[in-house]
Amino acid sequence: MEIVKKLNKALLHNKPDGRCLLNIEDFKNIAEAYTGTENCIAVLSDMQYDKSYIFSSKTSLELGLNFHDYPVTIDSIWEEEMLKKIHPDDRMKKYVHELRFFRFLESVNIENRSEFSVFSKIRMEDKKGIYQWIRHRMFYFFSPYNRKLRFALCLYDIEWDQSALSSRFLIINTVKGKVAFEDKMDYNNILSSREMEILKQIGEGLTSKEIADVLSISIHTVNRHRQNILEKLKVKNSVSAFNEVMDKFL
After folding, report:
1. Which residue segments constitute the domains of the chain, with CATH numbers given?
2. How many beta carbons lie within 10 A of that of residue 165, not counting itself?
3. Of 115, 116, 133, the residue nearest 181 (C-alpha)
4. In 10 A of CB 110, how many CB atoms?
5. Is the dihedral of CA 194, 195, 200, 204 positive or negative?
6. Angle at CA 7, nearest 5°, toward 227 and 84?
7. Which pLDDT does position 201 carry in this prediction?
8. Global pTM?
9. Per the database record, which ranges form the HTH luxR-type domain (predicted)?
10. How far is 116 from 105, CA to CA, in rounded Å?
11. Average pLDDT, rounded, for the chain
12. What residue spans of the chain are helical by DSSP H?
């Protein structure tokens, strides 16, 4: 998936550095405290060692996630069991927004980066296979030693107001109580809704046949849409088309 490749390149460190000055046990305690007080699911990702720790709660059971360990340790920064429950459209937007948040923080003095966090509403399947609106919050923690991103903390809980009409992706200044950035993710002035849908599937790494199966259309129709996308964006191939849209978003 192209967007995940971009995220891995931006987020992951190549070499562990023992002088990071951030103690992982302190951040595990923070994640566990959120889980205990808010009944949310907390995912702590360690960019330096490419690992994640999932702290579950009763909310996990409501979403059909039966974690047997506490915390669950994963040899990846991607919590696939949770990510696959996110609506495909929102999952792609979540990836894009995470990369945008990282680039946004790069422009902020390291002393002020802790003032910002992500707030979003996304759809996730519950234990009955029904999409529920989920409140997703994300915090990034940078090392004071090498100024690189060390930890990401993601919190998931079920939104009490299920009347939302669309997903939201905000960067919040929690000190000032203001929205620093709202990601509208709108490219429909150039591409049709079907073309955007196909482009998202391309970003997920699907072939034309797989896209046709997912969308219940013919391969001929998929290929026609792909050609239209290339012509509208004035690029030579589908990967370039996807990157063009991502660059506009970012």
Report:
1. 2-182 (3.30.450.20), 193-249 (1.10.10.10)
2. 5
3. 116
4. 13
5. positive
6. 80
7. 81
8. 0.76
9. 184-249
10. 8
11. 86
12. 2-11, 24-38, 58-62, 80-83, 88-106, 193-203, 208-215, 219-233, 238-249
